[in-house]
Structure prediction request, 473 residues.
Amino acid sequence: MVLRWLVMVAMCCGSALAWAQIPTAVDAELARAKVPREAVALLVVDAQNPAALPRLSHHAGAPMQAASVIKLVTTFAGLELLGPAYTWSTPVYVDGSVQAGVLRGNIYIQGQGDPKLVLERLWLLLRRVQGLGIHTVQGEIVLDRNAFALEASDPGAFDGEPLRPYNASPDALLINYKSVVMAFTPDRERHVAQVQFDPPLWGVQMQSTVPLVDGPCSDYRGALKAVFSDPNRIRFHGSYAADCGEKVWPIAYTEPESYAPRVVQGLWNSMGGKLSGAVRYGTVPAALLAGAPTLELRSPPLAEIIRDINKYSNNVMAQQLFLTLGREGKGDVATLASARAVVERWWQSRISSTEPLELDKGSGLSRQERISARALGQLLQAAYRSPLMPELVSSLPLSGVDGTLKRAKVASPGSAHLKTGSLNGVTAIAGYVDGASGKRYALVALVNHPNAASARAAFDALVDWTAQDSEDH
Prediction:
């Protein structure tokens, strides 16, 4: 009889009982944000002891959108399946003879998914080509990006913001995140602001100055009245306020398909190189692939790459890693389907055979990806017991210190390593919190609601409550 009564209470009042566990300060902040109870999932568990009862659990089994917190799955899977020392190679094949600085033939650059082939590293690659004695190419520079097989995508399809760098699509030969960085520097004597563009884009006219005006610095981007719609020209119809000082504005190039050829040719020319043919996409001939590359550029190790992915929530880098997992280390052509299959097999065998996981791109920049707070808690507990724990934890933002948590308003800055996530209608955090008792907790908080962005103060309160655990012991 007693057991039957308890079951009835759990069925009718389970939500209320779970809500009663939520700390008062967190409860108050959620109410202030007008976020209802049904839209929240919370979990605080002992990071070291999976058998221990949760310190806090509310709707922990509900599959929810987690935004960039999904990157925890991708980065930990990467560490376990590839290893922290894994590096990406970008091989270069020179086909032809070199005489007096002239290559009579082609140069082939083969992308294999390097997430951090930024401008400086591309310059180094081309500098090494010139170190072979090549300054003029009487032929073509061919870019091979066939390691990933991806459908053409609209960079503005997700949220209507095609010029936001976070919307850059993955690419086996991803150069500089397909972005242009504009630096504005006031020159008061000439009454202009100098504009510097990186990288140089071949065939694109770039305005070198804009008028300088007096006045406060408010919306400097809007005041510039920039026009990015023409892939052959970047121009400004407005002005720049002197009080703004130096500002840096990154944008995604409006024609991403032509970005890599334009950068390679623009950078080659800026280094004094000459090219009689074009820079184009193509395939490395099989005969060249049968031998060793002429040279290759290696990426930083994965343990370093995931710091950029998690601390700054870099979407395209996360997708590069996700797709690399889809190649299964065999050099196969990766697709999103193959990447999902590899990570889901790893999840089933390593993390949980019962907790569901819905993946799409592996970055969280998707409405299809879902995971429960309980599943994330199991991931965090498994990672904490792993010898790779230091690499994963050090990749996470420190609350109130750096990365996406630099502005977090917590009582004890540095007391938590947490991955953040946000989309319209989604706010999430997950990671580790050090308690005053000396215990380390795995913490997960997910909100799916139109007012989700207002729940950040509740998350800060939850971190503080978790850290102030001495009264519990």
